[in-house]
Specification:
Elements lengths: L1 E9 L2 E8 L8 H8 L9 E7 L7 E7 L5 E2 L3 H13 L7 E5 L4 E6 L5 E4 L27 E5 L3 E6 L8 H9 L9 E9 L2 E8 L3 E3 L3 H14 L5 E6 L2 E7 L5 E5 L2 E9 L1
Parallel strand pairs: 2-3, 4-6, 10-11, 12-14
Antiparallel strand pairs: 1-2, 1-17, 3-4, 4-5, 6-7, 7-8, 8-16, 9-10, 11-12, 12-13, 14-15, 15-16
Bound molecules: 2,6-diaminopimelic acid.
Protein name: Diaminopimelate epimerase
GO cellular component, one term: cytosol
Pfam families: DAP_epimerase
Length: 271
């Protein structure tokens, strides 16, 4: 089958975006992995699917699949910014602010005049069962989890503070933490370097993708963990390897993320 797609990126986190508003989305895991494959397919961190909505007050449905394993996941923050850029540029809406439903949340996405996009990422969740996270029976039972903050941004995150992200053991510690029984549905592992109360650097070893150049939900999770720990004020500029994200959280409501969203090319693939 021939599949039309648009390649997009948000702070270097890259996506294959599929317009499924006019025909049902029917790709299986093997086809999704092919889309994500950087040798045998298009190559992307995640596949984003735009579906029509019949729900009052909801403009679109937003589905996310990790490129490496084809698994459907709950949220993708950088993808959300590309989503609104896509639906606007493809004429699927005239709105600059759209509301979209994911598998477990409703997000508000707003195109700004400077081309950046501001996303209401919803509130963080700390209740272990909703992450999901199974804490060790006793603190210290699992040394890898000492000093790790665990929370959900709709998807699961583990956050560690490091002195320097460039020397952090991302490629080794990331997968080791992901493999722990404490995370029954896996986890995205963030490594955050605090520069000052309004600035940070980050690297994220993502579930189902490995290290990406940026992770929107992971950056939100790191800032939330840092605000709770007293490291940050309510607004933080975070430098990822692929670009700069601005995260705001008042300590109780939604987390807001502002950053870039760009189209790279349109294409057709034979699946
Ligand atoms: N790998 C993530 C999904 C993509 C998240 C990331 N690309 C973002 O921008 O939030 C997960 O399995 O939960």
């Amino acid at each position: 089958m021939q599949l039309s797609f648009t390649k997009m990126q948000g702070a270097g986190n890259d996506f294959v975006v599929i317009d499924a508003t006019r025909q049902p989305f029917e790709l299986g895991p093997a086809q999704l992995r092919r889309l994500g494959d950087r040798r045998f397919g298009v190559g992307c961190d995640q596949v984003l699917v735009v579906e029509a909505s019949t729900e009052p007050g909801i403009d679109f449905r937003y589905r996310i699949f990790n490129g490496a394993d084809g698994a459907e996941v709950e949220h993708c923050g950088n993808g959300a910014r590309c989503f609104v850029r896509f639906v606007r540029d493809k004429g699927l809406t005239e709105k600059d602010v759209v509301r979209v439903r994911t598998v477990n949340a409703v997000l508000t996405l707003a195109l700004a005049a400077d081309g950046r996009v501001r996303v209401d990422m919803g509130p963080p969740v700390f209740e272990a069962a909703r992450v999901p996270y199974v804490p060790p029976a006793l603190p210290g039972d699992e040394p890898l989890l000492n000093d790790v903050a665990v929370l959900s941004m709709g998807n699961p995150h583990a956050v560690l503070r490091v002195v320097d992200v460039d020397t952090a053991p991302v490629e080794t510690l990331g997968p080791r933490i992901q493999a722990l029984p404490a995370f029954p549905q896996g986890v995205n592992v963030g490594f955050v370097q605090v520069l000052d109360r309004g600035h940070a650097r980050i690297r994220v070893y993502e579930r189902g993708a490995g290290e990406t150049l940026a992770c929107g939900t992971g950056t939100c999770a790191a800032v939330v963990a840092g605000i709770r720990a007293g490291w940050f004020d309510a607004a933080v500029e975070v430098q990822a390897r692929g670009g700069l994200l601005r995260i705001e959280w008042d300590g109780q409501g939604s987390v807001f993320m502002t950053g870039p969203a760009e189209t790279v090319f349109d294409g057709v693939i034979q699946l």
